[in-house]
Amino acid sequence: MQQPLAYRMRPTSIEEVVGQQHLVGEGKIINRMVKAKMLSSMILYGPPGTGKTSIASAIAGSTKYAFRKLNAATDSKKDLQIVAEEAKMSGTVILLLDEIHRLDKVKQDFLLPLLESGQVILIGATTENPYISINPAIRSRTQIFEVHPISPDDLKEAVHRALTDKERGLGSTPIELSSEALNFLSQATNGDLRSALNGLELAVRSTTPNDEGVVEIPLSVIEECVQRKALTQDKDGDAHYDVISAFQKSIRGSDVNAALHYMGRLIEGGDLQSISRRLMVIAYEDVGMANLAACSRTVEAVTAANKLGFPEARIPLADAVIELCLSPKSNSGMAAIDAALSDIRSGLSGDIPNHLKDAHYSGAKKLGHGTTYKYPHAYPNDWVKQQYLPDRLVGTKYYEPKQTSKFERAYGERYQALNDAQNK
Questions:
Q1: Is the peptide bond before 136 cis (omega within 30 degrees of 0)?
Q2: Is the link from the previous residue into 401 a cis peptide, with omega within 30 of 0?
Q3: Residues 93-131: pLDDT tens digits?
Q4: What superfamily does domain 5-146 belong to in CATH?
Q5: Residue 57 and residue 411: Cα distance in Å, rounded?
Q6: Calpha distance 123→69 (Å, rounded)
Q7: What are the C-alpha distances in Å from 168 to residues 154, 156, 328, 375?
Q8: pTM score, whole prediction
């Protein structure tokens, strides 16, 4: 039985890795580790199909170390023992441990000494946030790197490589992939290279060659093979971003029906990731201080949607869209932090006042750090007049409250009262 195209096209060296250039690009951390042969154990986390296994395989290929792959959930301690024995006999072994967030204590305790000695270089792979889901004992012995969905341009490059590679790819078959199909394939798979290559291979294997022996792959065939409709795409791929833009602007403009329409296009394209990210951005960028409870409920809706998956995910997403559309709007939070960042980036910062500096170490008192700090909870109303900004920024105001909702009006009144008391 022939191995799947996505498996065959896995990189054999670090230079072949598609995407993730913030980690494997020239001069970046994993690239440097490989070149110096100074590997440390690591955890790679991110969505499926974004190259976690490929990076591990490429590291092994570039360093010529033995490479083994296990699953933390389904493989036993005995399987780990076999890897450990191999490491003792032949030297360093790179172990890709998939679903590392499901590693139990017995396996963990067996692994820890191997990581300490460097006999095993662990590369853990997970779709879960390791800072929440992985035991601190493992985290403290690994570096944690986030991998991102692969960009459409990188996906196109990977598809082109698969179409032209005669040894591992489809290069021995004459194939004509239309530009519309290529654009759609690079967008509709949402940065998942495995899905893109699986869809491409199915399209090629299931299409009868024409009279000249060429396999022609139009948009309709790719749509069928990846089970997505090209409602968010156009010839140049720009319409995908146009839909996302229209989605946000419709919510910002409080048009419920338009917002539901554009989200419907994204749902039909299976693009849960774009919807989730955009809704959380919209909540805090466009509603923000006007209705922080709606922001929290949007995060809850997105979390529920990602746990449910489509088709049920459409329900909490629709609830969130309707609430965000009908909520009062304010961008004052975003404007405030952008104003603060502008000062910092232009060199307007200054020394932190001594009474605010850390005083929890030996010698801090001699430096005058924290000695005159006033603890607000020791005063009436849990507040006391005290300078917090650096000297050169005293009196600077970044936050400008809006009057669009009763919530922000209340915050604004409190903000003004505190400013007045501070300036007396």
A1: no
A2: no
A3: 889 898 898 888 888 889 888 888 888 899 999 888 888
A4: P-loop containing nucleotide triphosphate hydrolases (3.40.50.300)
A5: 53
A6: 9
A7: 19, 17, 56, 67
A8: 0.54
